[in-house]
Amino acid sequence: MQLRKLGVLAATAALVLGACSGAATATDPLGVIKVGANDPIHVAFWGVISGADASLGTDSLYGVQIAADDKGGKLLGHAIQVTTEDGLCTPEGGATAAQKLAADKTIVGLIGSSCSDETVGGIKALTDVGLTTISPSNTRPALTKADRGPEYAGYARTAHSDAFQGKAVAEFVFNVLKLTKAATIHDGSAYAEALQGVFADEFKKLGGSIVAQEAVSKGQTDMKPVLTKVAAAAPQVIYDPVFVAEGGYLWAQSKQVAGLEKTVMIGSDGMFTPDFVKAAGKAAEGNYLSSPNFSAFQAGYADFLTKYKAKVGKDPISAFHAHAYDAANILFNAIEKVAVKNSDNSLSIGRKALRDAIFATKDFKGITGVLSCSASGDCGAPLIAVYQITSRETGGTWPPAKPTWP
Amino acid sequence: MKASLIERLTEGAIATFLWLLRVAVVLVVVVGSALTIMSGRYSLEVYVGLVVSGLTLGSIYALIALGYTMVYGILRMINFAHGEIFMAGAFAGYFVVTASDKLGFLNQGPVTAMITIVVAILVAVAVATPIALLVEKIAYRPLRNAPRLVPLISAIGASFVLQYTFRGFFGPGIYSYPTVDFLDQTLPISGVIVRYVDVIVVISAFVMMTGLYLFVMRTKLGTAIRAVSEDKDTAALMGIDVNRAIVTTFGLGAAMAGAAGVLYALLFRQVFFLTGFVPGIKAFTAAVLGGIGNIPGAMLGGLFLGQVESIGPTLFLDGFNVPSPNQLKDVIAFTMLVLVLVFRPSGILGERIARSRA
Q1: A6 in a structural domain
Q2: Which residues of B touch A55 (CB under 8 A)?
Q3: Are the Cβ atoms of A222 and B174 closer than 8 angstroms?
Q4: Across all residues in chain A, what is the average pLDDT?
Q5: Residue A333 located in a structural domain
Q6: Strand order of the sheet with strand A288-292?
């Protein structure tokens, strides 16, 4: 009896001593991730890597991988391991992916998701276990609103908020194209619904009128009924910021509906990919897509493009590779800042410390701009451009050479 | 005594609910249509455009539905892998049409375009049929005498295997059919846009369906198929090769689906490994709507579903000023299914012999 007590005491003392000698910050309100001496630092990417929108997530994943390569594949002497989880661009897919990731105790930090819907579905699971994710391509404004719920505590993004994108497109249509009658179509996704809403509000503020606001559902192929209905309101321009498949159907079929032959179609960054242009075919020519303004990126972007081409073998396939590269670097920087090296070469990384370090990012020199994170996780530099699609792009050359506006 | 009272009450409640449902749906349809038409928001051309769109989509649904209904008729099982056979056909056609485009043959004129389409359909049939026969051989034949739920699960498994095999071969991205200039030209009718592709899709669908109907009704093998679907054991006793009848059924259904895949892709242009899922579900719905097991029923169900999806949202809901009604087209389509099944549990042209078989 006595002996056993003694043993417990000794063990406790050893633990305390060990902890003291190891690290002063080995406690963290959200727990500490231990990276063993020979274990890699596990970073996960979650986003859409299959289906019609695969190019959106895959493009971002390349950005993350290039960021890891630039570090020599190593951080603090540990290899960087990047795993992926498919979020399918839906809330359900995002929830499933996040739950799986939340259960993996080796994950240090995450990059993702691709689609705002995935984040809406999955963020709670990640935040609850103390993880932090940085999204390179979510643009729904509500995700980084000051009054976002506590479940978003573990969420930041390097993508622009659609509060900027919707406004930019509205200004482009009203001031540059000088059109005053617009219709919008969304697909019920968190991204599209919010973006067309911002556009409509801003367009009305500028003095334009919204003659129809319609919606389709994901997976829908026959767009003629909805386009026919929109045509009855005789819009000069249709703003349909959806994704690749539905966007392709909408643009291609718009040419087959009486009254829309001359209507200008405008999409946004979710459709800014060669897959979309292929899907829309010749119907894309003369129409517009908004996306991050690549000409306004920092000097490092040219260098990044060379690496991208060397790694993937072609030019970027979507719009958010650079944002992903920056997001990964913000995460790596934060890990380097807060990780505590133990005497046996293992690392202790406090989850809360890491989250705070990410949110404290200030004047970070990324390739999309000089980035500082707000308290609600907005780290992006909101630079939007509108690109006109011409026979050059439908002929198979991507990306568009230079923006039409600004 | 008490139990029977509760039973009677529940029964009464269910009956009342069903009646209310019927009345509500009929009211929405009648009042909504009246309001929409009276509002004068849409011209006659708009309605004609919607009907044309519904007709093209509906004839494709009908073609796929035939496969579901025939297999159900003969084996009493739902072949959930059928949508993937359709997708395989669309993929096969893609390579033919693209090759023809690359050779500069496709857009030389209406004749070369038509030749390409016919070849694409034949190749699609040639690819889809062996896949379906293989699925039958591997996933269904060993389970022919198993309880009815077993082949159903096996079918779902086969469907996943096919989807992800195609994903493995062709990746997750979208393949877009090249533009066929001839098909995009419109018929010289003023006011409505009817493209040649719409006409071609509808005509080829009807030709194929008529051919199938004649085959099943007039030929010896067709008679064998009907005999096996009436009673497998008795048919076998009469000297009918049951296996041959079943394999023929699968082959015919797959040929229709493969051809439908090409027609679908000519209309909508995009193909990827999940292309078969939604049309598959819709065609299955069409088969149930028309009365599963019944060939003319599947055709009618497909055409009906196409029309409801196309014209339904605008016609029924616009009058009530429902915002973006087209997002609700699936709700409308499936409400119609429920309604048809409430009024006629065996579908529009439900099998009259169903009762004696069950």
Answers
A1: no
A2: 173
A3: no
A4: 89
A5: yes
A6: A209-215, A181-186, A237-239, A264-267, A288-292, A384-388
